[in-house]
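Now for a chain:

_____
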Amino acid sequence: MGLSVYGDRTLKAVVAVPGAKWLYGFRTNYSKADAATELGHQPGFGTTGLNPLIVLGCNSPKPARVTKRRSGASPDGLVAGGNESTFCDVGHLDEAQTGGWKIARMYKRLRGGKGLFFVELALVNPQAATEGSNAGGVVINYAWRMPPFLQAKITEGDKTALGITESTGNTDNLVRGLRFPKPPRATFKAVGTESVGSRTTYIATNKTDSPPKGWTVRS
């Protein structure tokens, strides 16, 4: 994100919340030298492609947002005046404030609760030679709200075998609303006396080799 729709936006990344080993990806037109030193902005792309620790389109949690009055025209051609606005790495909030940035919105953790389920999702390096080579062993808890009717149709045994866990208010490392990456999905075909139906849900990446009986991993 950035102040204006004008100016080129590049993909950057920051650590959103304390203890996170993954990176929150976003596009911004703020490209001054202090973006790395004060705000902790890291490149979204490296020499081999997309940073393997990055997640995109994350709805929650989000990093802190900071603002600062623009003293002059920016290198991107943005006019003087107004405020710069962008995200800040959680480990650089002190540096940002020392550099004149103000915290407009503090980071907020995603806490669990009834009806919010999660599966473990290993962050895989898309440039790795093998699909199973994950990014430094980093695993996040991909969270989503499972409709009550689907909760009732999946047995507790199958939830366990799929790696599905209902979160609590203390569940850590929850990440919700990602566009990339996403966990694989599994489908169960239910054959009744008068109809054939199916149910589909997420499956943990470490469960795809041994899904519960009747379930097929789709992706």
Summary: The chain has two domains: 10-105, 116-217. The two ends are 31 Å apart (CA to CA). The chain is about 10% helix and 35% strand.
